[in-house]
Every structure is written in structure tokens, then in C-alpha cells.
Amino acid sequence: MTGQVLDFSSNYDILIKELGELRVKKDEPMANHTTFRIGGPADLFYIAYEEKEFINAIKLARELAIPIFILGGGANILVSDKGIRGLVIKNRASKVRIVGLKGKGKVLAVNEVYVEAEGGALINQLVRFCLDEGLEGLEFLLSVPGTVGGALKINAHFRPEKGEFIGNKLYKARLLTLENKVVEVGKDYFIFCYDQSVLQKSGDILLAATFCLTKGDKKMIWKEAMAGVKKRQESQPIGIACSGCTFRNTQDKPAGYLLEKAGLKGIKVGNAQFSQKHANFILNLGGAKAKDVLELIKIAKEKVKEKFGVELKEEIFLVGEF
Q1: Do residues 86 and 41 touch, judged by C-beta distance below 8 A?
Q2: Mind giving me the DSSP string for 166-231?
């Protein structure tokens, strides 16, 4: 019938049987899987440890018309208190390896090294691998939470003025399309810009990414990486549940500056609070709800609009039933 709503939950039992009754959890609290420590239950929750498992789960859910949400490290998202309908697939396919070398000069000294990382690899895992191999290019991401898939989706960065974007080092990637085809694309396909990539709109799912890095002095690269970590520790809240920066920077001013000048530092709603250390971070002081965070976001937007005439845009993604 026209207008009839498909009850995809009727296919849950089929999905569970195919993926394994011991592998699929029901009503899994998403607060256990996000850096914000906020979020209601996912109807179904499945961890894929290998790329084949990951692809199989996605294809199966799509065939059964069950909505899916791909979860990486759980950073940069705010999950609804009502949770997520359908299947949450946590990608733990995390292999990192050197897949190519390129030399130059008469003796063909190695200059460029190509490193492939699966989408579920933690950013820290990838960066530490590169540092230990003496490879330069991704050291600015040391200590950044999340996975390779999530980082490429938002074009993760540290000091934009220095060109420190993960997308700048991408060589190629392997994707699963909406049509369930595995394709290989180059860097230009992503249309990278500040906090954005084509993955936010295309529906493509990252399977693996290959980065082009350069050989360098291992000690110096580690030193640069640790300097970045120290700077983050000095300027950002550490050791408390949050989801990273709440708002995207504007063309003229960093969001943190606007929020601070608008008097947002320390403002609380429930157990959610704008950090006293960096105004663009909302903290979960313990037991905070998504509704508390949303109210803080609303207040911040209104105050910044009133004081500066600027419309702030969220950097975090809202996931689930809002």
C-alpha cells in the first residue's frame, strides 16, 4: 500500500541468525561506545573484526532493509537518548601495513612510502606505526581519538594554517558504494575541505585508505608529534568524556574564541558543561544526557548570533532518534 511504513524490525531475527546469535547484541547502550559516554540503546549491535565481515554485515542489512550506522571510535558524534534504530556496525577491521615504496635519484633511495590502513584502525594506531617506521606526514594526529574512516569523513586536522589535514596525505581509498560495489578511488574523489569530505553526502563507506608519506628522521618526527600532543593537552580538556570540538570554526574566527567572548565557558545544563579550559568543548561531567548537550548547543548558537551575528554550525554529528 502507498504510504505504508516498512517494519524493518521484523527482519531482525533473520539478521541475527545470519550474523550469529553470539555476535549480535540487542539493546546495546551506545553510551558504552562513544567518547561522550552518552547515548541510548541500539536495537542491534555487531562488531566486525575483518573487512569481509564488515562488508557482509552491511550487504545483509541492506538486503533486509534494516537501517545501518557505521561506528568507528565513537568520537565527534552525539547519540540520542532514545538510541538508534536498526543495526550499528562497529568497524574493528584494523590492519596497517606498508604497501609500496618509491625512490628517486640514481641509487633509487626510498623517498615516498605508501601505507594502507583499514577503516577501523585507530588514528593513534596508524600514526604510531608511521612514527616507528620513520615516516613523516601524519604525526600531527598523534593522540587524536577516532578511526581512519571517521577521520577521512571529517578530514581531521590540527593546525589548518599549516595544511595539517589528513586528506592532504591520502593517495587512494577503497570504498563500498550504496550499490554494494567495492571500488578504488583517488584523493580527488573526496572533495576535501575544512571539516568535510564527500563521504558525508555520498553514502560510500570507507574500507581502507592508502597514504603517501615521506622518509624522515625518526627522532625528529617523534619530537614534532609529541610537541603537538603537548599543545593539545595545554589547550584542551583531557581525561574527561567529551566528543571533541562542538562547532566548526568560522572563516574569520575560531569557534572557541566566539564562544568564550559570548560568555559560554563553564555554562551548564544538567551534567553537561562547556569546558572552562576551551569553550568549544562540551563535557559530560557524569550522567549527562543528549538533551542536555542539545540545550547547550541551542544556547551557544543564540548567544553567538546575538553578539556577533554569526551562525555557528555543529562539528559533531547527531545520530539516532532526535
Answers
A1: no
A2: GGGGEEEEEEE-TTS-EEEEEGGGG--BTTB-THHHH--EEEEEEEEEEE--HHHHHHHHHHHHHH
Q: What are φ and ψ of residue 69, in 5° steps?
A: -130, 125
Amino acid at 37: R
Phi and psi at residue 42, to the nearest 5°:
-90, 135
- Show the cell assigned to 208: 581502507
For the chain, what is the radius of gyration of the CA atoms? 21
Q: Which of 312, 291, 285 is nearest to 301 (CA)?
A: 312
Q: How far is CA 135 from CA 23, 121, 157, 174, in A?
A: 37, 17, 18, 22
Q: Supply 296's cell numbers.
A: 547547550
**pLDDT tens per residue across span 276-286:** 999 999 999 99
Give the single-character DSSP code of 122: B
Query: Cell 574566527, residue?
Result: 253
Domains of the chain, earliest start first = 8-91 (3.30.43.10), 96-231 (3.30.465.10), 237-319 (3.90.78.10)
Q: At what angle do helices 123-132 and 218-235 cross, to 10 degrees?
A: 150
pLDDT, tens digit, 9 for 90 and up, residues 19-56: 999 999 999 999 999 999 999 999 999 999 999 999 99
Q: What is the DSSP letter of 112?
A: E
> For 134, what's the count of Cα atoms within 13 Å in the CB-facing half-sphere?
8
